[in-house]
């Protein structure tokens, strides 16, 4: 994947967090920011808290690239990222501070796998978005579950806080320390334990990179049941810990269904082996579910058992123009009926999005200009059948009032070009000015009402208010652009947008989790009884609170 | 469904529990047992503890029918079912006993919906299998969540034990009281709250009967994502509380994926509203998962939000003969490849099963006699495509060494006849003599090894050792028949069979749960760390232990 596709959409996470950040990209500034010389300017900006909130996406992209290239050199410094504890004014909890005897213990346990060099540690202290930065002085690289167990047992006894870390691709500040938590990396836990080519069940260590797993499976005729922009870096353990969604959710469901078993090390070092590879097992409570999506706050996932679907033999795409959102919904119903089991994506975008990709990226609208567009993907075992189904469907919807125009693709280049119209919206948005972005779940029939409502509410205060997203999953990306950042515009959007979502029992974080930056907004999506229960689970499983502190749940004092 | 299809398979639950029961059916005795006059004999047998363990299935069937017909009359007495507390020698926990003031409170809260008449209470005190019987003196029928909340708040304060009850179709003694627990029925909580015809999300109260929900959905072009033999009686709340599996699991996955939200009342009466109808929501821990499959021991499910798939337009069936189990497995792989997304069932049976249905039920083997048979069902949106796929698949496997013969069905009568070969195995088994039955999950490649192993181990001590089941779900039904009940044969099977399953990380209860009768066997499928954690959850959520006591988990003293 292009890094941009990961970085751009991530930025919206800043909006609505504390503090709220916005993105901006002036096309004319791109060439400037591409120069290494801009680094001094980055550093200057970062020392100014207010300006630091106004991140330029193209700058972000460069930093990411540079940081990646210079990961283990001392030539590149990340001083431009303010320390989280300073920017967010967080109070350090009374954990012990790491001592020489602690280091001696770790070095004895993991010879050569205890990183204390300040330069080496830098990229592990900073998140992908360069928005939060911890000041950990130790990174541990266990290879086995037993080592993780011994580390956590020791840390729990010594009251040392721990930050579990996978590929560090999280978007809500959940994967890096806030203070000096010990970083416990799954980087070396990258072994595939077994694959059953009959059942399609893969068992592997938590540190396996998603893309590597896919590459391992594809020659065997299987694929991972999830696919993400960050697949080249993210670890399967991190995917599970954050309940990652992604592009295949409509077809294969969430990790709650596909993850069959987990091995987890608890805060006190005890190993919970629920690594069964069974589709049916009703012997007691399903403990693994509690760890899926717990963002490393309840235990550290060390191994995963996951059900992998067969690799589809054929993929087809249709791009359609719809006269209204009501027609988008009716087309979705027809689509589910006529395409049924081969439907693998149903994405929508409004005309505002199309205008942005045309204007800023010079992409061409392949169909008649319309208020809405729909992208439908099918994945199946028989290309002839799938194409026939799509053609019949297309004939039907175009013969009715649902769709005014459409085009079909079944070969790589055209498929890619059609997907680009949808996938590059975020990129086009950043070229339109300052972007206020929201990633929310809503009941599907309410999905676009929020956009319409926001257009009326903001009126001329916004440059553009557009909506697109995974309609099939009830996942809307609401975007507001403006010429420049304005507190009054932000105040007009928030907390109105969260209240709106809350009113329809929607989710203020569809798939990215709460991490450090969204934990204070949980009450918009969860009742207080649920939050209280979550806090009780946390206390029960991690009484000293050493696992990924300051994340996911607000403390009782913060509520 | 025929009641027999529910009762016969249930009986195996007795094997391996305390005490272990066995089934026996001599065809010649059927006519005798069908006479009402046999009731006196039933009563006589039931007073004799040892004989009571030896249930006759045909007798069971009659009792079920009679009990159902006379549910609210005083003409039929259920004295033949021993009290659980006597048969299993359980110690009553120190809960309060219900008083007149308690009854006054309930009558005030639920006017006319407090049942205390002994005759009326009988069927709610006894399980479907007539194997366990409580002695509750009160049944409460709330209509609303608020009423459930008030009941539980009161019971928790007064230390009164409660037995949540849905359709009372559970097979492990989980749905009826052990002593005098108050029965809290979902019987009147049968309202559909909403159905979204775009997303297919249904929200309803816990007491809706599964079949009624299906009948509500079918005209709308949808089906429930689960289907069970007990669908005519079971409640969706009970399905969720027991994580029911059933016939559609291979295609639509488990309830852990399809249940999107729950409303649960906790032991202290607090209402946990996690009834969201969202496919994506990562705001904190997924609490609902803990209640799915917790068998009413952690909270009472009062409402369910569930994702319903489209009703398939076409259903096809293939019945194939395979020369070995290895070929059964290879056919499964080919099947997943060539049928892919339309595959909805992959069942297998060995030659022993076929001989039993031929001999005892006079069914005809439609294909060449072989060591193994496979039944494949497809469900799809386009009948022509589905038939083509199945034909191509059949040509391929019959052209190779995988399959020696096969037949295809796409119309109702022939489909039913082919399904009967697989569905009526349990019935045929009961006509073969005493049956020792086991319902287990195993890694799919190990599935038949247990049967082979058991054949060698038991040799002539057994009349028949056969295996069949849901290969696609890794779910094996192992069955051993003998001319008469023998402790030595049972001892040769158990605990060997559980140890065997445990060795391959299998499950000793694939889908029926642990309830009252299997809770002592949990350690064969779950490590002690997991059991300990489950006990901690129980204590945290229900400190007084009032919710469905004596069920699911062994107490620490019992371990």
TrEMBL record, chains A, B:
Question: Which cofactors does the annotated protein need, by name?
Answer: FAD
Reactions catalysed according to its record: (R)-malate + A = oxaloacetate + AH2
GO MF terms on file?
A: (R)-2-hydroxyglutarate dehydrogenase activity; FAD binding; metal ion binding
**Entry EC no(s):** 1.1.99.39
Q: Name one GO cellular component term.
A: mitochondrion
| Domain of life, per lineage | Eukaryota
Q: Where is the FAD-binding PCMH-type domain?
A: 132-311
Q: Which InterPro entries match?
A: FAD-bd_oxidored_4_C (IPR004113), FAD-bd_PCMH (IPR016166), FAD-bd_PCMH-like_sf (IPR036318), FAD-bd_PCMH_sub1 (IPR016167), FAD-bd_PCMH_sub2 (IPR016169), FAD-linked_Oxase-like_C (IPR016164), FAD-oxidored/transferase_4 (IPR051264), Oxid_FAD_bind_N (IPR006094)
Gene Ontology process terms (BP): malate metabolic process
Keyword terms: FAD, Flavoprotein, Metal-binding, Mitochondrion, Oxidoreductase, Transit peptide, Zinc
Q: Does the keyword Lipoprotein apply?
A: no
> Where does the protein end up?
Mitochondrion
Q: Which purpose does this protein serve, as stated in its record? A: Catalyzes the oxidation of D-2-hydroxyglutarate (D-2-HG) to alpha-ketoglutarate. Also catalyzes the oxidation of other D-2-hydroxyacids, such as D-malate (D-MAL) and D-lactate (D-LAC). Exhibits high activities towards D-2-HG and D-MAL but a very weak activity towards D-LAC.
Q: Which family does it belong to?
A: Belongs to the FAD-binding oxidoreductase/transferase type 4 family.
Q: What is this protein called?
A: D-2-hydroxyglutarate dehydrogenase, mitochondrial
What organism is listed for this UniProt entry?
Pantherophis guttatus
